[in-house]
Amino acid sequence: MENRPLEYDYTVAKMFMLTTIVLGIVGMTIGVFIAFELAFPGLNTVLGSGLAEYTNFSRLRPLHTDSVAFGFTVSGIFATWFYVGQRVLKVSMAESKFLMFIGKLQFWLYVIGVAAAVVTLFMGYTTSKEYAEFEWPIDIAIVIVWVLWGVSIFGLIGIRREKSLYISIWYYIATFLGVAMLYLFNNMEIPTMLATSAAGETNIGDWFHSISMYAGTNDALVQWWYGHNAVAFVFTVPIIAMIYYFLPKESGQAIYSYKLSLLSFWGLMFVYLWAGGHHLLYSTVPDWMQTMGSIFSVILILPSWGSAINMLLTMKGEWQQVAASPLIKFMVLASTFYMFSTLEGPIQAIKSVNAIAHFTDWIVGHVHDGTLGWVGFMIIAALYHMAPRVFKRELYSKSLMAAQFWIQTLGIVLYFTSMWIAGITQGMMWRAHDEFGNLAYSFMDTVDVLHPYYALRGTGGLLYLIGFFMFAYNIYKTMSSRPVEESELQNASPMGA
Amino acid sequence: MFHWLEKHPFFFAVGVFVTIAFAGLIEIVPNFAQASRPVIGTKPVTLLEQAGRDVYIKNSCNACHSQLIRPFKAETDRYGHYSLSGEYAYDRPFLWGSKRTGPDLHRVGNYRTTEWHENHMKDPKSVMPSSIMPAYPWMFTNNADIDTAYATQLTNAQFFGVPYNKPVPMKDGTTTVVKMANSLADAHKMALEEAKEITAKMKDQDVKDAVARGEIPEIVALIAYLNSLK
Amino acid sequence: MDFNEFAAYAYFFLVVFLVVVTYSYVYHLYTKRKDSSGVDYEHYSNMALKDDIGDTPVKPVSKSEEK
Fold first, then answer.
1. CB atoms < 10 A from the CB of A111, how many?
2. Which residues in chain A are contacts of B99 at CB distance < 8 A?
């Protein structure tokens, strides 16, 4: 054994950084493409009618949602875990060959799972449940990847040097448990290969086809308990874990109130799970559940803002850093967008507002100001912070990063403003009656009016995508920029011009 | 007491799990037995309709079309009677959707016809001049997966007690029986019979020829399913 | 007492229980500056700020306490 000081080992973190960027590009490119399909339907057959099946909006839509959620975001969660986990527990992956092996195994299985998911979704093999479209063999692969991640988390915790668990670790643990519970229950299904005909035939049709264990209203209830909380445990909880580590670290400021962070954690854990019912307002699920969903959604503002305000106040007295560092800009805007979408969500969950907003583009806008502004920006910031440390080199270009920030911010603003107008306009037109009590508009009228907003939304998405390519290029060039000393990596990340 | 939890990862994890599982326990579990009772007049889908439902799912029609009519005047005026929980008793998976880029389809069978769907799926602009819905030409050439649809029916009957080959009460006081085939060969025969009824009203010669040859293009199954939505 | 009635009671008492737990947690956090092992809560932020492998942990795992 050579005698050199122990170092953190970022091998697995680097692997997942790569998939974060690659799958981000894939998912967002598809997203921009299908956004323009709504504005210009001719794009549906852009590769000719022979391939129309694979360039069609409806076939691509699950690919977009799943590749940004389970590709980009989940990769980002894994990448940051394999970075943050080691550091706040003060233990290196190099100290355990077992955990290193598990980490790499998790990565390769994940890659295989993603490949299988992409192929099957293109071919149209889907269970149709949103964000849970995969058929059961892929579900099983996902569960294995997830269990391996659990082994990593608790394995690393088991050999830690720091006795207390930092707040980020709490959130990672909650992500692990929450997704495990939700995913398992929502994907309960019976493979059709188990059925036998009266003539004794078995294995009829596709072997991987399956049927949901729940029917109708129950299925909807479980699905949106899942769907809403997948948002919680993929797009909120782990992202809070990231910001609680990366913002204090990059700015050199202690968290404004560590106690508040603990309190918001338990608040968020308890309240979030109730709010799923707001996806089903005025549907056929029992009234009390709808009301419960509505009320808890409003209560949810408290723990969400607890975290967000805690983050913003962490910068107290240090606001010059926001002006100086584009990296801090990303994080501060991320927590601002978090506050924004956690206020917007509860507003949409109020029953009378939901009556207009549901089924419209306003909901799409809401999801995207959360995902583009909060999730996207935070993961981008996290990777920017990690890059100099895992590559031991300074970030390639600060000015490129600043340009990316403003381009993407403009993209988000175009996105959500156009979707607000589109959603509220359409929602109002659907319910408008003339003076004789007849419907004032045909459905087609309400679609025609959306064209400029769809074009604007596509443009906003395109700007964000361009920014993402700038991000990928910046990280790529960082790998070969000026090497840095350990001492430069204490807080603010070193950046080239 | 609280602090102890923060230093013992296992018990901490248990604590978090109990906290997050609580809502599901209260909200979801008690409702399960109640919501799955079918209302009078709800019957399971036939084989061809099941194959059509699979086509609907395969192409994520539910990404743009809901199947849930909310109890507002504007919606009942536009789409028909508001949806009832029991109507979905046999829906696995549910297809409510979450976005109406296009109109609701829960009762589309009441006001659209086979001819209309045929024209619309081939070229939406021919019936809705400013439609933004893409055309689905491959449904006219790809064959529907009758085998998997049959396996789905069998699974529904065996594992979930969906009443195939059993009398189901209808609104007018009579009963009706939705038949399920005994064997795969039998199933193909049944599906073809159903398909012929649909193609009798269609005008695409290739589709008619295919059915005459014993094949069932996806469009035929899809139309059968859409017609059954009432 | 049918199932629904039982569920309603169970629900009510669970809510009361959770309210008590939450508020005692709030009370605990904001009346005590230090936790039971004598560490100021706010010092836990240093777990992120001083996280090099050579830095001293805020509260090291001692061998004798190992379960």
1. 17
2. 359-361, 363-364
Note the pLDDT tens digit of each residue in A4-21: 678 899 999 999 999 999
- Segments forming the whole domain that contains residue B18: 2-35
Pairing between strand B175-177 and B167-169? antiparallel
Is the pTM for the entire model greater than 0.90?
yes
| Low-confidence residues of chain C: pLDDT under 70 | 62-67
CA distance C16 to chain A (A): 14
> What is the torsion angle, in degrees rounded to the nearest 10, for the CA atoms of residue A102, residue A106, residue A108 and residue A110?
180
Interface confidence (ipTM) of the complex: 0.92
* Structural domains counted in chain B: 2
pLDDT digits (tens, 9 = 90+) for A328-372: 999 999 999 999 999 999 999 999 999 999 999 999 999 999 999
Q: Is residue B41 included in any domain, yes or no?
A: no
Q: Give chains near B: 3+ CB pairs under 8 A.
A: A, C
Q: Cβ–Cβ of B27/A181 closer than 8 Å?
A: no
**B89 shares a domain with B18:** no
Residues B22 and B120 in one domain: no
Find, in chain B, the residue whose alpha carbon is nearest to that of C12: B26
DSSP state of A165: P
First to last CA, chain B: 59
Please report residues of A whose CB lies closer than 8 A to that of C60.
161-163
Does one domain contain both B150 and B210? yes
d(CA A338, CA A356): 23
CB contact under 8 Å between C61 and A162, yes or no, is yes
